[in-house]
Amino acid sequence: MERVPVLKIRDTLLVSIQVDMDDHTALALQDDLTERIVDTGAHGVIIDITALDIVDSFIGRMLSTIASVSRVLDAETVVVGMRPAVAITLVELGLSLPGVRTALNVERGMDLLARTAPARADAIFDEADDDHHDDSVGDGVLTS
Amino acid sequence: MGGPTVTGRADGADGTLPIVRDDDVVRVRQAVRAAAVAVKLSLVDQTKLVTAASELARNTLIYGGGGHVEIESVSNERRRGVRLVFIDEGPGIADLDLALTDGYTSGGGLGLGLSGARRLTDEFDIATTVGQGTRISVTKWAR
């Protein structure tokens, strides 16, 4: 059985599915990712499906499950690179990928995760910043 | 589809494949893709047919207890297409209407296999006998 490699970049896990997965490979990926999220404390997961020429109900369910499980483990999942023909077929098949966020490519997926990250960072820094407010913020306006 | 349908053109992609193991489903997808390309289905139609094949092959494996698929290119006087016939000798389907309902599943799936495959193809025929097996035929025509 083939295994899909999971890469870690800062606090994001990146998976690029390059093989035509059978169902066991898909389930193994689901398990591997879950373990890696816990092991690394990653807050984001990007799944690149550029190379997938179909997404059937099994793969669709895998993507939804990964998104749900990762959310419970404090990580956001973004599926990127879906081909247009795959998107059309997916909708006609009746799959709506509940809970799965999508972006056009890896770069936009990273941007999407970065936009959700500040909320997380603010929650941490709010406490730390309490005793040293920067009053100059917002004052950088040129006056004449 | 207007006029007699000729089957079994020699395109090299025609043939019968077993569906008895997990990775057979992958092989079925690849063979169906080759057959769809050979009759010049559009990319979207190739994708729809391969996706339907994946759903039906998995059904044959999981619910039918294994079986096989016959892949054949077909043509009438106007156009060409691909016909897939999935055959198993499993338990059969007791309530066909229910099995064809979106979201109904007797296993652990999403219940989109049969209903989804029907939507993704142009022709869909199913014959099933409880205790004897199931035969599902789907056809996708080039536009």
Q: What Rg of chain A is obtained from the alpha carbons, in whole angstroms?
A: 19 Å
Class from secondary-structure proportions of chain B: alpha+beta
Helical segment count of chain B: 4
Helix content of chain B: 25-40%
- Hey, roughly how much beta strand do the residues of chain A contain? 15-25%
Strand order of the largest sheet of chain A: 1-2-3-4-5
How does this model look, in words?
The complex is a heterodimer of chains A (144) and B (143). With 144 residues, chain A is an alpha/beta fold. Chain A has helices at 23-40, 57-72, 84-93, 106-128, and strands at 6-9, 12-16, 44-48, 76-80, 101-103. Chain A is built from four helices and five strands; from the N terminus they run ββαβαβαβα. In chain B, α1 runs antiparallel to α2 and α2 (43-62) packs antiparallel against α4. The longest helix of chain B is centred in the middle third of the chain and has 20 residues, at 43-62. Chain A binds chain B through residues 20-24, 53-58, 60-61, 83-86, 88-89, 92-95, and chain B through 22-23, 25-26, 29-30, 33, 43-44, 46-48, 50-51, 54-55, 58, 102, 109-110, 112-113, 115-116, 119-120.
